[in-house]
Amino acid sequence: MPWFRGSIAIAAALATFVIAGGWYVSAKLRETAKASPSVELQINGANADADKKEHVMNADGSKPNVSPLPKTDEEWRQLLTEEQFYVTRKKGTERAFSGEYWDTKTPGVYKCVCCGEPLFTSEAKFDSHCGWPSFYQPIDGLKDKRIEEHVDKSHFMVRTEVTCKKCGAHLGHIFDDSPQTPTGMRYCINSASLKLEAKQAGDAAKGTAEAKPNESK
């Protein structure tokens, strides 16, 4: 009968629609299930990074003042003179007896010209007659605290290079040829890699007074 055949066709169409709809919904659910772990991991990762940043604090509870060092040659060039850049970033050497501090007797602290890290003191400076500033030990008297040592095989020689541990600036070389010093060592440093922070007159006088015994007693 015509009406019966029409009913069958309608029922078949409805069944096809329901099956297709069910397959589409199932596919979407599978896609969501796959995407959810990734999204959750991203969210959790972001939250973890935020927690780390919040918990990195100074001892007094204040937020640290982070000032990253320059990383490219162009950034260093903007901060240094041509000779300072050549010596510290390209491992160059200034001419003997030409540097600013080779014969300086001014009391104070010698800092890295690149990052300002204190490296040597005038108390450890001595005249080695080599034409470069010479020190018998770093500021803290210990190796690998502020200064790093590396094997240098350039110029057909084997030497020990010293660099600033904080920024990697080339400073010079170290030699064990100074028995007249307390350590027997000679840190032969380029003036161009250093910046002298001289002691104030009041500080120098105070240091001298503290060093002298009290003769009134």
How would you portray this structure in words?
- With 217 residues, this protein is of the alpha+beta class.
- The protein has 2 domains: 1-66; 73-199, Peptide methionine sulfoxide reductase (Metal Binding Protein, Guanine Nucleotide Exchange Factor, Chain A), CATH 2.170.150.20.
- It has helices at residues 2-55, 73-79, 82-90, 201-211; strands spanning 108-112, 118-121, 125-126, 134-135, 147-152, 159-164, 170-175, 186-189, 194-198.
- A 6-stranded antiparallel sheet has the order 3-4-8-7-6-5. It has a 3-stranded antiparallel sheet with strand order 2-1-9, with no helix packed on it.
- Strand 5 and strand 6 form a beta hairpin.
- The longest helix is centred in the N-terminal third of the chain and has 54 residues, at 2-55.
- The protein starts with a helix and ends in a 6-residue tail after the last helix.
- Mean pLDDT is 77; it is low at 35-60, 62-66 and 207-217.
In short:
This protein is of the alpha+beta class. It has two domains: 1-66; 73-199, Peptide methionine sulfoxide reductase (Metal Binding Protein, Guanine Nucleotide Exchange Factor, Chain A).
Give structural attributes.
217 residues, alpha+beta, Metal Binding Protein, Guanine Nucleotide Exchange Factor, Chain A, 2 domains, six-stranded antiparallel sheet, 37% helix
